[in-house]
Design goal:
InterPro entries: AbrB_dup, AbrB_fam. By secondary structure, the chain is mainly alpha-helical. It contains seven helices and no strands.
Length: about 170
């Protein structure tokens, strides 16, 4: 139980610092950095798997708050863009998997599960059902997620500068 309290304390401190620095996804990055650093340094933080379910339930609740009558009414305007995003990302994920496999020698299906732009947890769990290098999928997906959370906000900022459409961070 002490390790769980230690882990939650680290996550809260890191999350608070990330939030105070006002960086995009600061609470997420801060918590991830602090707990990850402790893990790398050998502190062995841990959280019971049941907390993962609880975190997903809470996140689902927050996302559910965004579903309003106005959002549902606007769905008809975004069906085609949503389908395009799914199809294009799926095609690019497969294409990326093939390229990564060819360039690195990583087994094709391991590379495909590592390259898919889906939710990290879902892809890792799905990869366990197949004869692939599961630890490699975990590493690839983890690195992908960390880099996306760090790099994507910078890319969005660069696009906003390039296009002249200013993008402002909310004062959170």
């Amino acid at each position: 139980m002490d390790k769980v309290i230690f882990t939650i304390t680290l996550a809260l401190i890191g999350g608070f610092i990330g939030n105070e620095l006002k960086i995009p996804a600061g609470p997420l990055l801060g918590a991830m950095t602090f707990v990850g650093a402790a893990n790398i340094l050998g502190a062995k933080p841990e959280i019971p798997e049941s907390f993962n379910t609880l975190a997903q339930i809470i996140l689902g609740g927050f996302l559910g708050l965004a579903i309003t009558k106005e959002v549902v009414a606007g769905l008809k305007d975004y069906i085609i863009p949503s389908l395009l995003v799914v199809v294009i990302l799926a095609i690019l994920g497969v294409f990326t998997g093939f390229i990564v496999s060819k360039l690195t020698g990583t087994e094709l299906y391991t590379s495909l599960f590592g390259s898919v732009p889906g939710g990290m947890q879902e892809m890792i769990i799905l990869s366990e059902s197949y004869d692939v290098n599961h630890p490699a999928v975990v590493v690839i997906q983890t690195v992908r997620r960390v880099l996306i959370v760090v790099i994507y906000p910078l890319l969005v900022y660069m696009v906003s500068r390039y296009t002249g459409n200013s993008l402002h961070l909310l004062g959170k």
